[in-house]
Structure formats: structure tokens, C-alpha cells
Design a protein that fits this description.
By secondary structure, the protein is of the alpha/beta class. It has a six-stranded parallel β-sheet, with helices on both faces. It has a six-stranded parallel β-sheet with strand order 9-8-7-10-11-12, sandwiched between helices. Helix 1 packs across helix 14, helix 7 runs parallel beside helix 8 and helix 26 crosses helix 27. The protein is elongated and about 95 Å long.
Length: 699
């Protein structure tokens, strides 16, 4: 039984265009039992993306694995959007890298590629070149599966002598240097009156017109045949009619056109760029020349034309080198990879695996799990606080889960581990790797590898008092609750009046709503608490953090605890300090994201948030509706909201900075409201998740 796969990429429409890797493999994979859904065969960027999105959502019950083609051009956006949507739909994701431009992108914009790669269960490259230049520098492992060639459609011949019949197959783009092929033909024309060049491929970015003008200027326009885009059978026929294949590109990975020339047994002359050296061996199956050197390429072609032994050796070497690219072998490699992906316990999938059994001799009393990513600026004071934490029991483990940071967090953390072990000599202190930089993924990775009977989740943006752990453990034992947490008060992110006003706003009713863990210190049962202290049995009974929720994962997990008749207890005398944003723009961005995730959390777990969370969004809707009637009418609700913020600010901080405080209130409310409205706009992507809840645990 094969796997059910949706392959996202640019696929050729029947009878039009050149086949993609998936198009070539489709029949062989279906013969192996796989069910394939391909998207998209549309032309045009918007039509293609809409078709990909519609296919992923409407046919979500027809596949389990999403395989996405990744290019360095504008199609990279399709890959990122498709991979994110597949993750939201709870599917496993395989990325297939293509194109010699990816190394340049990895060097100039590593953050974009890391964000994409972090979504993948497996990354596939067709050559060692992309592994060396893209995956390894970014810190990701990958599998190598070559691009396929239908060897039966490209039958090889044994070449006795090479004729001056040249073939060039590629899209007409600047970085493929089509003009070099015309320059080679012009140089050959003096010694070979029958020299001819066939150029196959569609025109892009004006390169086709420039190449045609160059042919006219050099007087060889009658010797050059421009075919445009043709079918695979036509390429095979033109290859059999030609003897020398020119590859003039300036960037390359493992081009299918060169692989087809190998299968045809042609004499290949190629620029030695990118991954060409992994595909071609100079003197064995091709002649390699420097990039953009028309004279060197002309000299190499002259060698092939004048030396029949060399031409025969290159032809036989090409035929032997192409054997490993046959469709049956490549299809079997894909089957093995998909089977591994389907069988793996994937912590990125929507359904988090249960906690593993712990041997008796490996148990500890308490496990502390801390996810970390891009925390270099504040890591030192945070770890200093961790080093001063009191241990409620000698048997403690501290698991620091690093999430592929883009800054120096990983190096700083490794350097700090010896000091942490010296501060807590009886503790087990370890650095673990998160499957991505997302908080719930790191938390689940740490919990799954923990050994404690009690699990405490801490946060690197928060400074905890020294007696934090003993007091939570005492409250857990005293109350018999299923989760215990303390109170979090905002701490200014900088020593400025604006930062102090923001911290005060985040602890007030107008900035934090009715969140007892922010606005009050009352002990007793609550709907949710931050940085929970869980008995392990609670997590075994209710499940781990929901990997679909980048934010609000604490609220959703506590909602499940209460749904299982558990008690969530707030210990009002235990106070931690959370670092608030330092500026108004950062405050706005934070609450905009919080507002969006309020909507998504409600879709995933209806009832986890109260209606009061959505007051900002309702207020903005009222203002927008009034503005639709009349711009002057919008001043009424907007003025009421502004007056309320000012009145509250003057009431609680009349002698300080009431205007800054009112501005902080406005940034929180408007950011939250806009985020909720944008969450509603993008909510249709999340609706398919609504029915895919965690399996109900035994109670």
C-alpha cells in the first residue's frame, strides 16, 4: 500500500509545457500504489496560487503528505504559503529543492529559507551541491534523490564521430547566458561551413530577442533555429539529430536538460558552475570550461569535432552516467522516503504523540522545560536568575530547548552550561534541539524527553523569583490541582517613560482585560495560568501543547485540563516579572499577533477564550460601520474609546505620564482589534482544523 501524496509545484498541462519531476514520476508512483494529487497546472501567478490553495483545502482528505517544489524565484512564495497551509491542515511536509539560485538566496536571505525549512519533515535535494551550499550552512539535514529521466524516451547512441550540430536547451534568461551559444557557433562557422545551432526554450526577460539580434549581428542567423517551447518527444528528436550539447548557464544545480543529453549519449560541453561538477566529470562524460568564456567553450567544441576517440569516450561516459537517473530507481527512492515520513513520530504534526514510558531508574521529581530562540540579548540575565533558583528536591532536570536561533543564542547557551551545572551540581542540565523555532514545538520536544513526575514550563522573557519552584510545588501538593501557576507582572523593557507607561498599561484592566494572572493576586481556581506546573499524569491524561498554536497554547491546554474536570490553580503570592515591549510600535505588533491568534485558538478550541477578549475587534467594527455611514459619525465611537482611555490614564497616573499611558492603551486595543479582524479574514484556512481535535483521553 502506497502513500497518499499531494505534490505542489508547477506542473505541465496535458499537451502543453515541459513535464516537472512529479509529472515524470506520476505513472511509476501510481504503479507502486501511491495516490497522487498534483497542483497546479494553471498559468499565471495568482491563478496558480489559488489553485494550489483550493486543492490543499478541498482535497485534504485525499492525502497525508504534501511534497512541495522549492525554487529560488518568485515560486518560493508558493512553497512557503503551501507549506504553512499544509502544516495548519495537520499534514506532513516534504520540501524538494531545485535551482542553482538557491545558494545565493541562502547567503543573502537565510531567514526566509530557515522559516521554510523549519516547516518540513524532510528536505530533498537532487544533488550534493545543494546539500553543501544550502542545507548544511543553514543547519538542516537532507536526503538526496536525483531528478528522473525517462531513459526509454531518450535512447542513447554510440557516436563514432561528432558533427558540428549544436543543441542548447533552456529558458531564455540572462543567467543562462544564451548569447554564449551563438558566439560559439559564430567562431565555429569559419572552419565548419555546415555548423548549425538549435536553441530550444521559451523566452523570458528579453533574452530571446537579444540572442536573435546577436545572431544577426554575427551573420549566423540562418544557422540558428529557435524552436520555442516544445514537447519532450521533440527534445529527444532534436537531441538525436545533434551531436554536441552546450550548457552555458552561470548558475546551475542538476539541470534536467543536461541529464537528458547524458541519456542521449551526446558530447556535452558545459560551464563549470554550481552543481555541474557533481553531475559531470571533465574528460569522462563532458568537457568543462570556465563560466562565461565563449572562447574556451569554442576550443572545447573544436576538440570534440577533431578527435573521434574523445567524442566516443564522452558519448559512452554520458550513457553510463545517465543510468542512475532512470524513473524506476528514482520512484523507489521516493517511496522509501515517503514511507519513512509516514512512519515517523513527528512532533510537528497536529496530533502530538503521548508521553513515553519512563524506566524507574531514570525518573526525577521535577523537570524544567524552557524553549529558547533568538534570546542572545537577554540570555545572560535570564540564565543568572535560573542559576539562583532554589530546588524543591535534589532530583531535578533542566532542559533548555534551543529552536534554531538566527543569533548567537546557541553558542552563548553552550558556553553557559558549565556554569549552570556548577550552580546546580545535583541537577541534570541539558541542551536539546527543537524541531523548529515555534514555542509549542520546543515545549513538546522537551516534555517528551523529560523524566520528571512534575513538569514546569518557564519562559526566557520572564524573570522568576528564587523560591518560584518550591512554592509552586508546595501549592501543587497542598491543593491537589492539575496545574498551578503564579502571577505575572509587566516589567519595563527599557528605562524610559514610554516603557514604564507600557508596563503599567499591560497590568491594568484597560490593557490586560480581565486576566487575573496579570491584574490581580488572588489565589484560587482560574481558567488559565502562565508557566504552569503540571503533574505528569495531567499531561498524559490531557495531551501536550497544541502545535498548531504559535500563541495561546497555554490557554488552550488549560482549557483541555478543565474540560477533563481538572483544576487550574493560581497561587497569587508567587510573582514573576515579564519583560514588556519597550516602544509603542513593538507593543502594537505584539498585540496585533495576539489578536490574530485569539481567532485561531477559538477555531481550534471553541470556548477557551471569553467574549471579553473580542471587545477590541467589535469596537473597531463599530467604528468602521459608522465611517461607512459618514466619516463624522465614526468620530462618536472613536471619541468614546479615546475619552475612556484618557480618563483611565489620568485616574491611575495623573501625576506621571497619563498621555503616554493612554497611547499605550490605544496601541493595545487597536492592535488587538485589527489582529482579530485579520484573523477573521484568514480564518477559512483554519476551519478544516475544527473537526480535527485531539483524541479524547481516558479520564
Amino acid at each position: 500500500m502506497g502513500q497518499r501524496v499531494c505534490w505542489i509545484g508547477s506542473h505541465a498541462a496535458p499537451g502543453r509545457g515541459y513535464p516537472s519531476v512529479a509529472d515524470r514520476l506520476a505513472d511509476a508512483l501510481r504503479d507502486q500504489g501511491h495516490q497522487l494529487v498534483l497542483a497546479s497546472r494553471r498559468t499565471g501567478r495568482l491563478a496558480k496560487w489559488l489553485d494550489m490553495r483550493r486543492t490543499l483545502i478541498r482535497r485534504r482528505d485525499d492525502y497525508d503528505i504534501v511534497t512541495v517544489d522549492v525554487y529560488s524565484t518568485a515560486a518560493l512564495r508558493y512553497a512557503l504559503w503551501s507549506a504553512r497551509l499544509a502544516r495548519r491542515l495537520g499534514k506532513r511536509v516534504v520540501l524538494v529543492l531545485h535551482g542553482g539560485g538557491l545558494p545565493r538566496l541562502a547567503a543573502s536571505r537565510p531567514r526566509r529559507l530557515r522559516a521554510l525549512f523549519a516547516l518540513a519533515d524532510r528536505i530533498v535535494v537532487p544533488s550534493p551541491y545543494l546539500r553543501r551550499t544550502v542545507c548544511e550552512p543553514l543547519g538542516f539535514s537532507c536526503a538526496e534523490i536525483p531528478n528522473p529521466v525517462p531513459l526509454d524516451a531518450f535512447p542513447a547512441r554510440e557516436m563514432e564521430i561528432a558533427r558540428p550540430r549544436l543543441l542548447w536547451v533552456r529558458s531564455f534568461r540572462d543567467h543562462y547566458r544564451p548569447e554564449v551559444a551563438v558566439q560559439v557557433l559564430a567562431a565555429l562557422a569559419a572552419d565548419h561551413p555546415d555548423a548549425h545551432l538549435t536553441m530550444v526554450g521559451p523566452g523570458h526577460d528579453g533574452s530571446l530577442a537579444r540572442t536573435q539580434r546577436l545572431a544577426s549581428e554575427l551573420g549566423v542567423s540562418e544557422r540558428v533555429h529557435f524552436t520555442g517551447l516544445v514537447e519532450r518527444e521533440a527534445v529527444a528528436r532534436l537531441g538525436r539529430e545533434s551531436d554536441v550539447f552546450l550548457n552555458t548557464t552561470s548558475v546551475d544545480n542538476m539541470p534536467v536538460s543536461v541529464m537528458e543529453a547524458l541519456a542521449l549519449g551526446m558530447c556535452i560541453v558545459s560551464a563549470d558552475v554550481g552543481g555541474i561538477g557533481d553531475l559531470l566529470v571533465d574528460g569522462q562524460n563532458a568537457l568543462l570550461v570556465p563560466d562565461a568564456d565563449a572562447s574556451a567553450m569554442t576550443a572545447a567544441v573544436q576538440r570534440v569535432l577533431s578527435d573521434p576517440k574523445l567524442a566516443r569516450r564522452l558519448s559512452l561516459g554520458a550513457k553510463a552516467g545517465a543510468a542512475r537517473f532512470g524513473i524506476p530507481d528514482v520512484a523507489r527512492a521516493w517511496r522509501r522516503l515517503w514511507d519513512e515520513v509516514a512512519a515517523s513520530a513527528n512532533p510537528l504534526a497536529w496530533d502530538v504523540p503521548p508521553l513515553p514510558p519512563r524506566p524507574v531508574d531514570e525518573r526525577t521529581d521535577l523537570s524544567i522545560v524552557i524553549p529558547l530562540r533568538d534570546e542572545a540579548a537577554r540570555l545572560e540575565p535570564f540564565l543568572d536568575r535560573i542559576a539562583r533558583l532554589e530546588a524543591p528536591t535534589p532530583s531535578v532536570e533542566l532542559l533548555l530547548v534551543e529552536g534554531q536561533s538566527r543569533d548567537a543564542t546557541r553558542a552563548l547557551l553552550d558556553n553557559a552550561l558549565p556554569a549552570l551545572r556548577d550552580a546546580h551540581p545535583t541537577w541534570r542540565v541539558e541542551r536539546l534541539d527543537s524541531p523548529s523555532g515555534l514555542i509549542p514545538h520546543g515545549l513538546n520536544a522537551g516534555i517528551l524527553q523529560s523524566r520528571g513526575d512534575v513538569v514546569v514550563r518557564l519562559d526566557a522573557h520572564t524573570l522568576f523569583p528564587e523560591d518560584y519552584l518550591p512554592r509552586l510545588m508546595q501549592a501543587l501538593e497542598r491543593t491537589g490541582a492539575h496545574n498551578v501557576g503564579g502571577v505575572v507582572r509587566a516589567r519595563p523593557g527599557a528605562e524610559t517613560p514610554t516603557a514604564r507607561a507600557i508596563a503599567r498599561a499591560r497590568g491594568d484592566l484597560f490593557g490586560a482585560g480581565r486576566s487575573p494572572f496579570r491584574t490581580g493576586a488572588r489565589s484560587g481556581p482560574q481558567k488559565t495560568v502562565p508557566f504552569g506546573c503540571f503533574p505528569r499524569e495531567t499531561l498524559e491524561r490531557c495531551g501536550l501543547y497544541d502545535n498548531r498554536l504559535t500563541r495561546n497554547q497555554d490557554i488552550e491546554l488549560n482549557h483541555r485540563v478543565r474540560a477533563a474536570r481538572g483544576v487550574v490553580h493560581q497561587e497569587g503570592t508567587v510573582v514573576a516579572e515579564h519583560l514588556a515591549p519597550a516602544g509603542i510600535s513593538a507593543l502594537f505588533r505584539k498585540h496585533y499577533a495576539n489578536g490574530r491568534w485569539n481567532v485561531f485558538a477559538t477555531i481550534v478550541a471553541p470556548g477557551c477564550l471569553s467574549w471579553l477578549h473580542f471587545v477590541p475587534g467589535v469596537m473597531l467594527l463599530l467604528i468602521a460601520a459608522a465611517f461607512w455611514v459618514s466619516p463624522w459619525a465614526a468620530l462618536v465611537p472613536a471619541g468614546v474609546a479615546a475619552a475612556a482611555d484618557l480618563a483611565r490614564a489620568f485616574r491611575i497616573d495623573a501625576r506621571g505620564h497619563p498621555l503616554r499611558l493612554a497611547l499605550a492603551f490605544a496601541a493595545i486595543q487597536v492592535g488587538h482589534g485589527l489582529g482579530q479582524l485579520m484573523g477573521l479574514v484568514s480564518a477559512p484556512v483554519f476551519w478544516p482544523l475544527h473537526a480535527r481535535r485531539y483524541p479524547r483521553r481516558a479520564r
